[in-house]
């Protein structure tokens, strides 16, 4: 577990180690089958897999990268202009271009297991069944890592989480536990998932009111609360940016007074949370059909 956090070279060596990833997955599967999702060894295994999934998309061996990204290279990109929010808008544009992964292998080996639906379902199972905070956080964190990029792999994983494995109820439950790091990671995962336009209606229906409930009534105090609040605002921004229906849902969940209060944080106008809330407010105002409702 310690070695797996030793940086890119360490991750590369461990991913290439014959049988290591397969053994970790095998152990966790056994623990879940034996109804023992809370033991320390399972926590260690999940934390190792979490670390090995970090930067996976950019650190994949060339042979995998070529197979996975061949379709993407052949997709024309006509939109070269960044929007008014710079790189974030460009990422939003990129999410339209998700192309499916090649057909999934029924019996993955080694590094292939890291993004395979079998392991994605294992993470979701641990999120639902484990009461150990480190195990919950590492499972959420692994999914956050796998959905972090802009290529076809993150979007294929996102579709598996939301549509194929019905993972949103388990993730939603993590928004309501008291452990701040688990909550922060769950919100960051939802922020990644919400970038995929084809999943936004499902996500909004399942978790938008819960995301609003995560927002504090005023400016967050601690650093981790500030990070969580900023990620929540950006997830809501993704869900409401092109959907007046979702913006109305945010309004009826009581989100607007909270977002205004966070954006008007006088003590630190340039905090991450304050900036994120301001970006969200600006976006919400673009739904002109809701102006009267906002004013009320």
Describe the structure.
By secondary structure, the chain is mainly alpha-helical. It has two domains: 1-64 and 108-178, Leucine-rich Repeat Variant, CATH 1.25.10; 196-295. The protein is 65% helix and 0% strand. It has 17 helices and no strands. The protein has helices spanning 8-16, 20-33, 40-52, 56-59, 62-73, 87-94, 117-129, 133-146, 152-164, 168-174, 180-193, 200-214, 223-240, 244-252, 255-263, 272-285, 291-295. Helix 3 (40-52) packs parallel to helix 8 and helix 15 crosses helix 16. The protein is elongated, with a radius of gyration of 20 Å. The termini are far apart. The model is unreliable at 71-98 (pLDDT under 50). Residues 71-80 have a biased composition (Polar residues). It comes from Calyptomena viridis (Lesser green broadbill). It is found in: Cell junction.
Radius of gyration: 20 Å
Mean pLDDT level? 86
Alpha carbon gap, first and last residue: 53 Å
> What gross morphology would you assign?
elongated
How many domains, in number, for the residues?
Answer: 2
Summarize the biggest pleated sheet: none
Structural class, by secondary structure, is mainly alpha
Secondary-structure element sequence? Answer: HHHHHHHHHHHHHHHHH
CATH topology label of the largest domain: Leucine-rich Repeat Variant
Tally of alpha and pi helices:
17
Helix content: 55-70%
CATH architecture tag of the largest domain: Alpha Horseshoe
Number of strands: 0
- What share of residues are in beta strands? under 5%
- Oligomeric form of this entry? single chain
Keywords: Cell adhesion, Cell junction, Repeat
Biased composition (Polar residues): 71-80
Region (Disordered): 71-109
InterPro entries: ARM-like, ARM-type_fold, Armadillo, Plakophilin/d_Catenin
């Amino acid at each position: 577990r310690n070695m797996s956090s030793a940086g890119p070279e360490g991750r590369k060596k461990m991913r290439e180690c014959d049988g290591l990833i397969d053994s970790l997955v095998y152990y966790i599967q056994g623990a879940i089958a034996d109804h023992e999702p809370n033991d320390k060894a399972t926590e260690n295994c999940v934390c190792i897999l979490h670390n090995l999934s970090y930067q996976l998309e950019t650190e994949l061996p060339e042979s995998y990268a070529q197979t996975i990204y061949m379709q993407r290279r052949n997709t024309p990109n006509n939109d070269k202009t960044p929007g008014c929010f710079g790189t974030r808008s460009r990422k939003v544009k990129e999410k339209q271009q998700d192309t499916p992964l090649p057909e999934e292998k029924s019996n993955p080996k080694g590094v292939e297991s890291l993004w395979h639906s079998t392991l994605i379902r294992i993470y979701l199972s641990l999120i639902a069944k484990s009461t150990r905070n480190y195990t919950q956080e590492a499972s959420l964190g692994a999914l956050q890592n796998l959905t972090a990029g802009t290529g076809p792999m993150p979007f294929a994983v996102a579709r598996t989480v939301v549509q194929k494995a019905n993972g949103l109820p388990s993730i939603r439950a993590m928004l309501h536990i008291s452990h701040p790091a688990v909550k922060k990671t769950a919100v960051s995962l939802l922020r990644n998932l919400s970038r995929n336009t084809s999943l936004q209606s499902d996500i909004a229906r399942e978790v938008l009111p819960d995301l609003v409930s995560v927002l504090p009534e005023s400016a967050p105090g601690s650093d981790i609360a500030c990070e969580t609040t900023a990620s929540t605002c950006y997830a809501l921004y993704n869900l409401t940016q092109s959907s007046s229906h979702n913006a109305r849902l945010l309004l009826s969940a009581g989100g607007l007074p909270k977002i205004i209060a966070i954006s008007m944080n006088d003590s630190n106008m340039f905090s991450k949370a304050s900036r994120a809330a301001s970006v969200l407010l600006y976006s919400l105002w673009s739904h002109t059909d809701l102006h009267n409702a906002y004013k009320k």
